[in-house]
Amino acid sequence: MDPYGGRMNEISESEIPFPHRKGNLYNIQYFIQWEDEGVGPSKRHIEWIRRVYKHMTPYVSHSPRTAYLNYRDLDLGRNDNENTTYSQAARWGLKYYKNNFRRLAIVKGEVDPYNFFAFEQSIPPLTLNEGKRATQ
C-alpha cells in the first residue's frame, strides 16, 4: 500500500502524466509470485489473484477502475501488436492516465511515430494528419 494525500492533492491531474492524486488516500499493489512450472500452477495462481481483485472491487476506484502503470495489470487490456490504434488502447490507457492519455499518445506520435518502443501496454502513437490531430 502506498500512502497518498498531502502535497499530492495539490498537483492537478493534468500537470504530469500520473493523474491519480486528489481524493486518493492509497494505491494498492497486488502481486503474486510463484516458482512452480507448468500451466496448472500458473492457472491456479492467476485465478487466485483474480479472486483477490474481485473481492476488493467494492473498496477501490471504479467507473472506471483506475491503475498505475508500474503495477501493470494486463487484465485491463493489452496491445495486440505494434499496430494497435489509439482507440483500441484507450480502453486500458484511460484507466492508467485518464484524460492525459490522448496528450501522451500525441507526444508518442511526435517522438516515436513508428512505435519502436512498444510493449503490452505502451502508449500507441497518435500522429498528426494534414495539420489536424488524428482521431482513429
TrEMBL record:
<dbReference type="GO" id="GO:0016491">
    <property type="term" value="F:oxidoreductase activity"/>
</dbReference>
<feature type="domain" description="Berberine/berberine-like">
    <location>
        <begin position="67"/>
        <end position="124"/>
    </location>
</feature>
<protein>
    <submittedName>
        <fullName>Berberine bridge enzyme-like 23</fullName>
    </submittedName>
</protein>
<keyword id="KW-0274">FAD</keyword>
<dbReference type="GO" id="GO:0050660">
    <property type="term" value="F:flavin adenine dinucleotide binding"/>
</dbReference>
<dbReference type="Pfam" id="PF08031">
    <property type="entry name" value="BBE"/>
</dbReference>
<keyword id="KW-0285">Flavoprotein</keyword>
<dbReference type="InterPro" id="IPR016169">
    <property type="entry name" value="FAD-bd_PCMH_sub2"/>
</dbReference>
<dbReference type="InterPro" id="IPR012951">
    <property type="entry name" value="BBE"/>
</dbReference>
